[in-house]
Amino acid sequence: MNQVRELGLQTTECGEDAVQRDGLPQKRSICSHRCWNEISLLSYERGREVKYELLNKPFKIGNVELRNRFVMLPMTIEKTDNYHVGDDLVDFYEQRAKGGAALIELGSCYVCDVFDTHPKYHTTTGAVGVWDDCFIPGLTRTAEVCHKHGAKLAAQLQLCYEWRATGEDELHSYAPSKDVVSGPFVGMPEREFTKEELAIVVKQYGEAALRCKKAGIDIIEIHAGIGYMVMRFISKYSNHRTDEYGGSTENRCRLLTEIIDEIHKTCGDDMPILIRYSADDLMPGGQRVEDLKEVIECVEKHGVDAWSIQAGFHEAPRPVANQLVPEGEFIYLSKEAKKYTTLPCFPGTRINHLDVCEKILADGSGDAAGMARHWIAEPEIGIKVAEGRSEEVRPCIVCSRCLDNIFIGKPCKCSVNPNVYFSQYGLPADHQVTGEEAEKKILIVGAGPAGLEAARNLKMRGFKNVTVVDQKKKPCGLLNLAQVLNEELPPMVDWYNNEIKRLGIDVRCNTKVDVNYLKDFGADEVILAVGPETTSPDVPGKDRKNVIDSHALKELVEGKGTPGKGFMWGLSCFGMGILGAPLGLMQWGLGTHLLVKKRMAVIGGGFAGIEVASSMNEGREVTVIESAKKAGAEIGIIDKNPELRKLKKEGVKILTLTKVKAYTDEGVLCEDAEGKEFTVPADTIITGTTMIDNTDLYDEAKGVLGEEHLHLIGNASPHTNWEGVAANDPYGTPEFKRLLEAIRDGYLVAMQM
Questions:
Q1: Domain boundary assignment for the chain
Q2: Which CATH class is domain 49-393?
Q3: What is the pLDDT of residue 367?
Q4: Distance from chain centroid for Cα 693
Q5: Torsion over CA of 572, 577, 582 and 588, rounded to 10 degrees?
């Protein structure tokens, strides 16, 4: 108890609802007047270790008190209704407020009428409008649900640089300077802002801020980062003006400081202002960390309350937030900013793990931890950390699927948290079962992602008798193989194994299932998540010793030998079987030249092939052979070009419009687009496999058990479609481009049972 006192936490009286967790009554964070600090006290009293103590300490931005150091950064998640806040968006933010976020940033909030204003703008339809009083009710609802659960709400005011005139006007993109063409998202001639237009923009910011204040929003954030308009004025790269808005740091910051002054004028000095700023925009001749001191001094003279420091620019030649970027690479920018300001300051670029968040506070790099996509994957980060349940925090795998959807105007989708996209089905807590329903006997065949996700959601709904069977030696299915190639996946495997233990899911491995087994088990509901069948393309030489397909890799992970692959391969399979295929051993075996020789050819330049080439090219000569015109099929728009550029830089050869004719002792016999044959030298050839719908058990079982209580899900299914999901919606069909999309089916079947 003294440890808690030392953290500055105080106990107060509160009327929380009592819930059961782990069989013990416990106060929960669902009360309307949440007493956050009591959570940590309860954790200590029950013997739970609060691992991340610094993250639980409160702090302030201006006059706003925040219960911990978790800041949920702004995201445009494409859940608005014609720029209006609706039920879906309110629910999204309420989950995260209930889940323990201290500050939730509502983004993006556009200050200008995208339909009828001067200048005329066009931007993403998923943004939140704040240019008219008609938006205040939706903003008010959002603020109220955040406050109900103890979170504070900031509105990120923004002027997007991607806009175009109406149909009868010439197509342009507004900018500080007409001689700097917009990047890949626009790519059109620039129209330089006039001073008269800038005065209109400044006024629009002030009016928008006032609407936010009337709605009960606690903090105003001005987006001055990553290439949006305010940043384009600040950056030496994009601002070549010679008037009072260009040249010196003070002039380039003038648009920002005028906006700050206008917000003070409309809202008063009691409205805290947070500045989100790219301390290094990564552009040639742009803003660098050396410019921080001058920018901070210039801006703070006008009265601001905190800094959110990030990196990047939309046109930047390198990524800042995907898997290619080492986690925490840009934290140093925030630490540097803290040298020149006494205000709260925190980083917010490529941060996804709690250890990194705690380190930020421990080494003085920031006063809070700003994360975005991890709050998509896990809405209860804050509460789980405070209650000493950090092992229950669902990992974010940094797959960029959320951003991929947003950038093409589709609602946000998460590979590991299906509720984000399918929010209409709710959460397990919304659909609790009791009595006879809870006693139903449920059998799940398959302990891969689909089966385990179904099991955990069913258990959380209150179903007591949930059994998972699998013929493999351990749960998690193909995730066990995928984690060898993708360093973001081991935490996912660990998390599922922890969920099995936490929820008491009965998982029986080494169990072969047929129709008789299903009949004898006597389940009320049977879920078949058996995964697909696989086959290799019929290429001459496919059974050669130097040819390894994903089936062979899967058997290596399972400790099974593959005939004809040589002594070392067989020995490795035997060792894997004896030792239980530990991750480190698998990575060592495939990462050295022990099993995969120096010259490697990868057949197929889609998502899987590129991932193999990327993870196994160190110290090897790697060639990717793709029959299509371009490589990178199935890779999202956020990752595709950076990943391909990275491979090229690392010396990986990518051959397109190339057919595979045969596998030989020398390597891969190929044919180019003109019909000319040539050989790609290779000691090891990694081939892909084709997934085939695996419906045999289902087809046989439905004649015995009937179809009403028999469910075929995941990669095994050719026809799964769910109520409320349009048949022509790509997210309602079983075209699984990535392994983890099977999680969707597990969630949906569990929520509708």
A1: 1-48, 49-393, 427-532+693-752, 535-691
A2: alpha beta
A3: 98
A4: 28
A5: 0
> What percent of the chain is modeled with pLDDT above 70?
80
pTM score of the predicted model: 0.86
* Runs of H (alpha helix) within 253-291: 254-267
Report the alpha-carbon distance of residue 204 to residue 208 in Å, rounded: 6
Strand arrangement of the beta sheet that strand 525-528 belongs to: 506-508, 465-469, 441-445, 525-528, 710-712
303-327 pLDDT tens trace? 999 999 999 998 888 888 888 888 9
688: its two tokens: 């892909």
SS3 405: helix
- In one-letter notation, the amino acid at residue 646 is K
Using CB atoms within 10 A of its CB, is residue 270 exposed (0-12), middle (13-18) or buried (19+)? Answer: exposed
Q: Domain spanning 427-532+693-752: which superfamily?
A: NAD(P)-binding Rossmann-like Domain (3.40.50.720)
Strand partners, 677: 671
Q: What is the CATH class of 535-691? A: alpha beta
Amino acid identity of 80? T
Confidence of residue 526 (pLDDT cuts 50, 70, 90): very high
**Per the structure block, which two tokens stand in for 248?**
């010196």
pLDDT at 573: 63
* For residue 727, pLDDT beyond 70: no
Q: Decide if pLDDT at 243 tops 90.
A: yes
The residue among 436, 483, 484, 438 whose CA lies nearest residue 463 is 438
> Which tokens is 138 given?
């939706």
338-342-344-348 Cα dihedral, nearest 10 degrees: -20
Nearest residue to 633 (alpha-carbon basis) of 618, 644, 647: 644
Which residue did the predictor score with more confidence, 332 or 172?
332
Under the banding of pLDDT at 50, 70 and 90, the label for residue 47 is low
Distance CA 533, CA 690 (A): 8
What is the edge-to-edge ordering of all strands in the sheet holding 659-663? 659-663, 667-671, 677-681
How far apart (Å, rounded) are the C-alpha atoms in residues 100 and 385?
9
C-alpha span between 530 and 447 (Å, rounded)? 8
Q: Is the separation of the CB atoms in 442 and 463 below 8 Å?
A: yes
Instruction: Fill in the amino acid letter for 366.
Output: G
Which residue has better confidence, 138 or 169?
138
- Torsion angle of alpha carbons 115, 118, 122, 128, nearest 10°? -70
Q: What share of the chain is helix, strand, coil (3-state, %, to 5)?
A: 35, 15, 45
- Return the pLDDT at 625: 94
**Angle, CA 220 vertex, CA 218 and CA 221 arms, to 5°:** 135
Between 372 and 566, residue with greater pLDDT:
372
Confidence at residue 568, expressed as pLDDT on a 0 to 100 scale? 61
**What would the two tokens of residue 350 be?**
């490529």
> Average pLDDT for residues 391-397, to the nearest whole number?
95
293-323 b/e (C-beta count within 10 Å ≥ 16 → b): eebbebbbebebbbbbbbbbbbbbeebbbbb
Taking the C-alpha atoms of residue 343 and residue 273, their distance in angstroms, rounded to an integer, is: 11
The DSSP result for 185-226, as a single string, is TT-S-EEEPPHHHHHHHHHHHHHHHHHHHHTT--EEEEEE-B
Separation of alpha carbons 69 and 343, rounded Å: 15
Q: Per-residue confidence at 345, pLDDT binned at 50, 70, 90?
A: very high
- The owner of tokens 């089905």 is 425
Give residue-wise pLDDT tens across range 651-700.
999 999 999 999 999 999 999 999 999 999 999 898 876 777 788 999 99
